[in-house]
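> call design_seq(struct)
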């Protein structure tokens, strides 16, 4: 069948409901409310000027038949401000799959943008690599922070979405923690004699059979060394919340932590001028849409 009216265009706010319907059909196990919540968060967040708010869709006579969600953010690389784009959920209806390359071509056309793929299925890894992507994260470290000794004279603070100022943190980090608290993340500050250290965690969606392990995902810290130093204090807080493990993106076992490193899952890719750093998944699909 020839579809003469198919074109690729930006998703607008007027398309949100129809795009949510399409994604609900395409991703079994994800509810429509899941997609609506994430699209609403994209609708209200700041986006670098000149880049699409939601991403692109294949339009067949006014109706979406394919979609690729994009999440643009600004990142600091030294003194340089760079643009990063999380290539998020992709789906094209079977009858229109021959138009799918239009989506990926237009979505990755900016040579100065660093593109991320943070949730590829293992069977897609070879395909992604043929598209010019390189792995910046090869695995995951399942840490058990409560088994680490907490730093002396330390304390942990939970940051709410209404917090106006956090002693010892910059205005930018304060805003980062409060914004992610609004996204239902757990924002923390660990205070030690060495200073104040920010962390963002999120309940993890890791399943083996019918069991969901009581784990959290480390979304943000300045460095994994800081997480290792504060892990004991964080782990004791998490035990009170019924959580045992914290999953950390890593390329090797992390010194100072008790846990297990694996490369069977957790690989993350990038393409572009700036290699992303580990332990920074802020403002990505994982946060905006949920695990």
């Amino acid at each position: 069948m020839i579809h003469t009216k198919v074109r690729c265009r930006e998703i607008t706010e007027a398309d949100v409901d129809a795009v949510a319907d399409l994604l609900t059909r395409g991703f079994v196990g994800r509810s429509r409310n899941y997609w609506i919540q994430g699209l609403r968060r994209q609708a209200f967040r700041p986006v670098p000027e000149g880049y699409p708010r939601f991403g692109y869709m294949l339009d067949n006579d006014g109706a979406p038949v394919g979609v690729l969600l994009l999440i643009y953010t600004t990142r600091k690389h030294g003194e340089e401000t760079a643009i990063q784009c999380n290539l998020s959920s992709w789906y094209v209806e079977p009858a229109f799959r021959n138009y799918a390359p239009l989506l990926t071509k237009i979505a990755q056309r900016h040579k100065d943008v660093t593109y991320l793929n943070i949730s590829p299925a293992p069977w897609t890894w070879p395909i992604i690599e043929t598209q010019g992507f390189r792995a910046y994260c090869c695995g995951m470290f399942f840490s058990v922070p409560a088994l680490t000794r907490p730093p002396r004279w330390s304390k942990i603070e939970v940051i709410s979405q209404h917090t106006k100022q956090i002693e010892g943190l910059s205005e930018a980090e304060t805003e980062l923690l409060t914004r992610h608290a609004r996204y239902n993340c757990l924002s923390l500050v660990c205070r030690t004699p060495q200073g104040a250290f920010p962390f963002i965690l999120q309940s993890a969606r890791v399943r083996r059979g019918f069991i969901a392990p009581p784990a959290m995902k480390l979304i943000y810290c300045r460095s994994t060394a800081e997480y290792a130093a504060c892990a004991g204090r964080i782990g004791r807080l998490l035990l009170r919340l019924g959580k045992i493990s914290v999953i950390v993106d890593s390329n090797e076992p992390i010194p100072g932590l008790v846990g297990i490193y694996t490369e069977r899952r957790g690989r993350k890719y990038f393409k572009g001028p700036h290699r992303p750093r580990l332990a920074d998944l802020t403002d990505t699909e994982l946060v905006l849409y949920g695990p």
